[in-house]
Design brief:
single chain, mainly beta, 4 helices, 10 strands, 10% helix
Length: 210
């Protein structure tokens, strides 16, 4: 378990708490709220090695070191709720869990992992990068409200096999992939994969060890 005080002690207050980072609570009220990059983040992590629980350190030799392990992680990205954008703490709690499946030394690693992140906005850095505002990309989400109901879940399959001087890696995933462009006009500062029903990729990697 860990706690991070993010930007609590600011070297430049104008960057940490921009003067113009105010938003009206609603159109019928003159009341506004000022947002800031400052905040506290919490993280907890747990793992369970099932083969060691059942057999102890003398587990059967057909198990690989990474076989039959379960893991779980939960984060809270800011503890304070605001009346605009960040109203519900549950929408700022990414939860990750997965298992390293037994392959009986055929593979080094075979992992399936899931993540749930219930934010109604894109996973985006567009506002902080382009205008230094601690806001989500709310306008893009308001244009596509149904679209971002399909991005709460992420998943990944990952496999690795090592040999004497090289490794083969395969991954198939619907995750937080960002594809960057050298042309500024083509840059998209948000997840490229949104719809869990159709957006995914796969890749092979070959690593050589010298």
């Amino acid at each position: 378990m860990g706690i991070q005080g993010d930007r609590i002690l600011s070297a430049n207050k104008e960057l940490t708490s921009p003067l113009d980072a105010e938003v009206e609570i609603d159109k019928n009220s003159s009341e506004s709220v000022k947002l800031t990059y400052k905040g506290f983040k919490f993280m907890t992590y747990a793992s369970l090695d099932l083969k060691r629980i059942i057999f102890g350190e003398d587990y059967p030799s057909f198990f690989g070191e990474n076989d039959a392990k379960f893991f779980f992680e939960m984060n809270v990205l800011g503890t304070k709720n605001y009346k605009v954008f960040y109203k519900n703490r549950k929408e700022r709690m990414p939860i990750v869990f997965g298992v390293l499946l037994p392959t009986f030394k055929i593979l080094d690693v075979l992992c399936i992992e899931f993540e749930h992140f219930g934010s109604p906005y894109p996973n985006s850095m567009e506002r902080p990068i382009n205008s230094n505002k601690p806001f989500p990309e709310f306008q893009y989400a308001s244009y596509n409200p149904e679209y971002y109901k399909n991005d709460d879940w992420k998943w990944s399959w990952y496999a690795k096999r090592s040999f004497s001087n090289f490794s083969i890696i395969f991954q198939c995933a619907h995750d937080h992939l960002w594809l960057w462009s050298m042309r500024a006009v083509d840059q998209v500062f948000r997840d490229n994969l949104v719809d869990i029903n159709k957006d995914f990729y796969y890749q092979f990697k070959f690593l050589f060890h010298f």
